[in-house]
């Protein structure tokens, strides 16, 4: 209604200025009254318009504290809203085990991620549907195999950690498996590394984690994506059926590490009965039940297993 009033007054003022009506019209409104009314309305509109706000400046680079063994130099910087994501490289350690990623914003607590090895390309994307962009940082602490980790920080009013993958021999990637616009995290569980055979023969089982809004965290959810295990099951069934004692370097000269991948596929995809029956079928040794109980106890204690 106000917009109509303003437009009407302006039209009358313009018409009078062009000489199309006399100073006193049939409406009894004089040009002076129209001018005053228009000025009053413009003053009200101007007064109600919000003043422009200045963007919140990101804090300037501040290097992590250097020591005799660490000399930090800025390697990469990304600015996302009020946040600065800075990757600091230790020039004294070219391998990068001492690198640090700092997530900072004015007046907010900083987040420090040690042993940083990469800032993922999806950083700046809302991967979990919470309405905020995330920072995704891979970590690597060094060693022949171990240890790889992944941190995800949601850049809300205050930064919130929504994923901290336990460090292990396995890394991980984000994929939208069901096409709903929310990314799942794909990794593997290495809980049986070196357990029954050398590392090269140790089984890794697929793990799928999804974002749970109720817990505000990525949690193991492999049974919800059981179809993702189809190819693994087919391949590992062939391994188990063709295995010979000690093929994978089993310490007790059995086929434990040959049959275990298939058993784990069924367990992690939410099919424990099938896992048990397959073990009984393809593991022809007298310790089959004790082996089963050991496996079951181990996976139930794993942070990657869905109970």
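^ structure tokens above, recovered residues below v
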């Amino acid at each position: 209604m106000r917009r109509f009033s303003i437009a009407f007054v302006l039209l009358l003022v313009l018409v009078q200025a062009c000489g199309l009506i006399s100073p006193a019209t049939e409406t009894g409104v004089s040009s002076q009254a129209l001018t005053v009314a228009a000025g009053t309305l413009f003053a009200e509109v101007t007064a109600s318009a919000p003043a422009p706000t200045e963007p919140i400046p990101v804090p300037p680079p501040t290097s992590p504290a250097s020591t005799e063994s660490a000399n930090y130099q800025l390697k990469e910087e990304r600015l996302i809203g009020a946040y600065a994501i800075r990757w600091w490289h230790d020039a004294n350690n070219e391998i990068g085990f001492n690198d640090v990623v700092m997530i900072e914003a004015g007046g907010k607590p900083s987040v420090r991620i040690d042993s940083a090895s990469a800032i993922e390309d999806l950083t700046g994307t809302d991967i979990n549907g919470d309405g905020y962009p995330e920072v995704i940082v891979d970590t690597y602490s060094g060693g022949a195999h171990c240890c790889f980790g992944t941190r995800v920080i949601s850049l809300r009013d205050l930064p919130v950690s929504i994923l901290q993958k336990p460090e292990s021999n396995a890394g991980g990637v984000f994929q939208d498996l069901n096409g709903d616009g929310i990314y799942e995290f794909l990794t593997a569980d290495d809980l049986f590394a070196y357990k029954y055979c050398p590392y090269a023969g140790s089984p890794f089982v697929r793990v799928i984690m999804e974002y749970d809004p109720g817990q505000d965290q990525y949690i193991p959810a492999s049974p919800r994506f059981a179809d993702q295990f189809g190819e693994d099951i087919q391949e590992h069934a062939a391994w188990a059926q063709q295995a010979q004692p000690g093929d994978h370097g089993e310490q007790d000269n059995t086929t434990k590490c040959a049959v275990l991948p298939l058993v784990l596929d069924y367990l992690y995809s939410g099919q424990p009965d099938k896992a048990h029956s397959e073990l009984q079928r393809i593991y022809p040794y007298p310790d089959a039940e004790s082996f089963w109980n050991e496996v079951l106890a181990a996976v139930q204690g794993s942070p990657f297993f869905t109970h």
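The radius of gyration is 32 Å.
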